[in-house]
Structure formats: structure tokens, C-alpha cells
Give the backbone structure.
Amino acid sequence: MTDRVAVLAGWGADAPDRIVTNSELENSLDTTDAWITSRTGIHERRWADPGTSTGDMAVRAGRMAMRRAGVTRVDRVVLATTTPDHTCPATAPWVAHQLGLGTVPAYDVAAVCSGFLYALAGAREAVLAGSADTVLVIGADRFTSIVDPADRSTAVIFGDGAGAVVIRAGTPGEAGTLGDVVLGADGSQSDHIMVRAGGARQPLAPSTPHGDRYFAMRGPEVFSAAVSRMANAAATALDRSGWTTKECDWLVAHQANWRILAAVGRAIGIDEDRVVCDLDRFGNTSAASIPMALAHHAAGFRTGDRLVLAAFGGGTTWGATTLTWPEQTGRPPAATDRTEVLPKLTR
Ligand code: UT7
């Protein structure tokens, strides 16, 4: 099926209403707004209320993406998440059910902050192979369910949210076409980002040490690996699409830290004003961060704009791909949609 390409058809995002500012965190943690802002670029993040799960946010983002794409059916649902609603079963089948999608195949992908690009790679391959014509790809994480609220090294960084896209079969040359998805993993660094207990290797027990119950990250090591892996993957993805960095309009990378985003941009030759950023408002939302950033900044992209997407996360894992921005077809968001439209990007 070489005459098929995979095309972005719709997008959406959902985030909890509750805004947690840096100043609020100063009250409960040994931290300051100045430290968080200067070290990460984050000013505020969203935290889900106790009744809101990853699946709930995924359903809302998925519904928006389908509406934007103008579809009521898709052939499969892929949900990237590290915080599924339950250890067993996967959350995607429940999400598909909530979306009224009948018995379509639905499964979760676990690649932490790279999860959305891993899920997108599978969706694109399914479309190219002809085994699906439309795929709903969602990245959703309720990271506050695994972050220790008393750990200042992680609690200030992560937020909750969901983003989604619909991918459909298209014809070569169409605006919206996704390029090759470059993926990689290095399991020798699996302990750099980890929730130590609660899995098969170390089941939860009353004696489980407090720190082992929560998400832990070796920040500085992850920082430098994130920069080099995302820069290399993005450069490879650009190369495979035959684009120079000058021809590329936007870098949309995993929203972990503004210093990381700026460094990736510098490494591949993309100026800061072309680096898409919403982490100042939403923090690091793990698998949700790329589709959320796309949805939040959709109004600032023009049809045909060239985007390079890149992510790095636990595993460790990484990925990158290219995308031309599609025509804004489909239906506009409903009044009830909660996707925030951030100020228009300028170049
Ligand atoms: O999403 C998956 C991928 N994740 C990432 O890409 C995250 C990558 N890492 C990072 O973004 C950064 O490493 C962090 C933001 C996590 C940390 O920033 P850093 O500049 O690497 O700080 P650090 O961990 O080297 O810590 C520097 C200092 C330490 O104090 P001492 O030992 O120098 O006295 C920390 O204890 O900052 C201290 N610190 C804090 N101080 C105030 C750590 N967290 C905080 C805090 N407030 N919240």
C-alpha cells in the first residue's frame, strides 16, 4: 500500500480545572517560585481532583479529536500512559467504550514520556499497512497519582492532562502527512526514571519503603540524555523527510523543561521563537505533553507548516517524527470542549 500516507485529521486536549501555582507549592514544599521558574520554566500546572482518572481525561481529549476530525467511528484506539486507571486491564478498551466505539481494538502503550510517539508510530504503521483507515491516538497521564507530593524534586514538575489526535489514511503530498517515526530505547538506563515498587519485581507490601512507592528520577542524567537523544532523533526524522532545519517551522518536543527544549532547538538549529512551549502553564504531563502542545497551539500553525516532534522518557525511550500541518477541516470545538487556546504563536 505504498500510495497511502498517514495524515493528521483532528486534535484535542483536556486538563483538570485546578491550577496549582508555584506560589502555592511554596507553602507545602521547601521550594521557591524563583527556583522552579529558572530551573524548569514552569509557572503552574494542573492537578486532577480525586474523582478524575487518566481514562476520564483521555475520553474528553479523544472526543474532541474525533469531533475536530469530523468522525464518529475509528478503527482502533491506542492510549499512551504510565498511569493507567488500573494495573489490569488496560485503560484503552474502557476509553473506547465511553466513546461509543463498539468493539474496535483498543490497547495501552507504555513508554512513559515518549509514549505518544510510540503510539503514533504503531498507528501510522497500521494505516500504511492498510489494516486501519482511522486511528485515535491518545496520550494521557495523571502523574499526580504516582508522584510523592512531599518530594520537591518531582512534585513541582509534573501535571495531569490528556491530548489526542485522529490519524487517517491519505494520499501522498497531502497537508497533514506524518513522516517516518524514529524510535529508540536504552534499557541500561531503566532505573533513571522509575517507580520501584508495585510491579512484578517488587510487589507492594506493608514493608515497602515510602520512596519506592513513588516516581523517582535522576534529574541531571535524564536532562543531558533528553537533550542528546531528542536532538539526534529529530535530526534523523528531518533527514528522512528531506527537510533542512531552515525549512522546518516548529519544534514540538516533550514538555519537560524549557532549558531542555531550548537546548534541543540549539542543537538542531531551531531558534527559540520556533520552539513550541506550553509547559509554563501545564508542567510536564508525560505522554500527554506533545498532543496537548499541538492542540493548545493549533490556532498558531498554518496549513503546510512543517513541524518536527520529539520526545524522551523513561525506559529510557525516545522518538521523533515530522508532520506538515493539515487543512483545518472537520468541525470546530464544541462550546463544552475544554481545550485551552493559548496565545497565537508568532515567528
Ligand atoms: O519527562 C521525562 C523526562 N524528564 C526530564 O527530561 C527531566 C530532566 N531533568 C530536569 O529537568 C532537571 O534535572 C530538574 C528540573 C529535574 C532538576 O533541575 P537541576 O538543575 O538538574 O537540579 P538538580 O537536580 O541538579 O538540583 C540542584 C539543586 C539541589 O540542591 P544542592 O544539592 O545543589 O544543594 C537540589 O536539592 O536544587 C535542589 N532542588 C530544589 N531546590 C528548590 C531540587 N528540586 C528543588 C526544588 N526547589 N523544587
Observations:
- Residues 31, 35-36, 39-40, 113, 152-153, 156-157, 219-220, 222-223, 226, 256-257, 260, 284, 312-313 surround oxa(dethia)-CoA (CB under 6 Å).
- The radius of gyration is 19 Å.
